[in-house]
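Design job #97: recover the sequence.
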């Protein structure tokens, strides 16, 4: 009787024999300029053509340092997914490794193709469905979005068959390397400001309203000002309260709103439904666990 995986399909193990191939062929990646030149007269129609150079180099460096692939100075890096490329009929050198960004619409098909033919690969993959590849290879999970040259911001993960017998693994080193890329370093760390208690901002009232609280300011209780504090130009007007007592009432309303928000979180937590494994899945888990325990004893 065949043993089926949790996914309902027979699990495919990587083939040991690698296909042969020549080293002088168009899928070998030498540098970014030569890669772009291959389709200079072809519209950019695939995701890989928008992959920032520094992100790609960070991925290559990660594969070099952390995978089980035997990298050498002359190891060919293969990129068969350029516009007009044919990954199925491409010529794959025995000593090469595919590091590329394939179309996600056929991602599982591509992963299966390389696994069955023993072609080493490390592929950019979809963020939320990356575990679909686990029956063929290893899912490499990072904690970062990637901004591409065309402006698209995509949640990525990766898939590879050069990390041994792993279903999945996290890659914090790759996460940090991508974050450090100049093409991705677009966020500016802004300082945090604490406004005087006598200042009412729109955001103040939004917090109170979201918490179900009430707060109001009469016209004789304060005045509007476009820039009421030193060293900080604010967007939009603020209301400055005359009375310290009114400022305390505002602070109390904020505190009540925050408490109400926390209470709502507890209600939501109480409504949480804990999911259980299917009986047949739990039975399989326990069988394997028992067998492993017996092997240890």
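Job complete. Output follows.
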């Amino acid at each position: 009787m065949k043993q089926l995986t949790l996914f309902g399909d027979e699990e495919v193990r990587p083939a040991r024999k690698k296909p042969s191939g020549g080293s002088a062929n168009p899928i070998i990646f030498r540098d970014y300029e030569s890669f772009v030149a291959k389709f200079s007269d072809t519209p950019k129609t695939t995701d890989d053509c928008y992959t920032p150079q520094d992100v790609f180099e960070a991925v290559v460096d990660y594969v070099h340092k952390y995978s089980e692939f035997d990298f050498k100075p002359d190891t060919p890096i293969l990129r068969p997914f350029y516009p007009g490329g044919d990954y199925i009929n491409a010529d794959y050198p025995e000593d090469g490794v595919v590091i590329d960004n394939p179309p996600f619409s056929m991602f599982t098909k591509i992963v299966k193709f390389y696994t069955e033919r023993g072609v080493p690969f490390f592929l950019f993959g979809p963020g939320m469905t990356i575990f679909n590849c686990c029956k063929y290879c290893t899912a490499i999970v990072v904690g970062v979005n990637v901004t591409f040259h065309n402006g698209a911001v995509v949640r990525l993960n990766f898939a590879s068959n050069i990390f041994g017998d792993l279903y999945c693994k996290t890659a914090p080193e790759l996460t940090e390397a991508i974050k450090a890329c100049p093409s991705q370093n677009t966020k500016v760390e802004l300082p945090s400001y604490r406004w005087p208690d006598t200042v009412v901002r729109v955001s103040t009232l939004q917090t109170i309203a979201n918490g179900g609280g009430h707060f109001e300011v009469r016209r004789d209780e304060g005045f509007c000002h476009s820039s009421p504090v030193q060293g900080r130009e604010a967007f939009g007007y603020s209301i400055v309260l005359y009375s310290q007592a009114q400022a305390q009432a505002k602070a109390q309303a904020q505190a009540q709103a925050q408490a109400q928000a926390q209470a709502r979180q507890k209600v939501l937590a109480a409504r949480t439904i804990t999911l259980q494994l299917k009986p047949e899945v739990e039975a399989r888990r326990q069988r394997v666990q028992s067998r492993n325990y017996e092997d240890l004893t």
